[in-house]
Amino acid sequence: MSEHPLDRPVWSALNGGWKAVSxxxxxxxxxxxxxxxxxxxxxxxxxxxxxxxxxxxxxxxLWVVEDEDFPLPSGMTVVKSAxxxxxxxxxxxxxxxxxxVMPLSDGDAAEMLALALLTKPGPFAxxxxxxxxxxxxxxxxxxxxxxxxxxxxxxxxxVSGVCTHPDFRGRGLASNLLRMVAERILKRGExxxxxxxxxxAVAIAMxxxxxxxxxxxxxxxxxxxx
Length: 226
Prior knowledge:
alpha+beta
């Protein structure tokens, strides 16, 4: 049986929607660190792991996300590991409220990065915004909340970068932006998915309330060179 593209989402994205902003070959690929810290090898063979270890990690290391234990490439060490839940949605639950949203682009890059660094919704680099399809809500001229898309492969798109500035929490901004991004993906005929830490019960409950369901456990490991 062939592997589902979401079973190894980073490898699928690096050979799909991320290919133009990544490098490597059939053995291993790395996303340009200006876009994010992700990398993956084709498989667990010695040649593939050697190719993975040859990459130069960016400031956040190499983020490797796999569906099972993965051998540690020679010359690298793990500085962080975490169990994650992958969730997807075939439809969104009814509800939500209208927001005055705006598309976010290069002119908003500095404010988007600052918001992501403050709220830590996941890895967000200087050019992550350039994946496109980010939307946000501005209040009194300030970026109050945002959400967008990150991993892309045929038939699937990841909802990511969902966060709200602490000054504007409690207004349902994040959940409604997430809903809007997911609905946009569904209207394109694709399936929205997302990743969250397995111990983040509050976030998981919110995602389930919007229509997302658990699909798979994945292990995140952040690698750096010894």
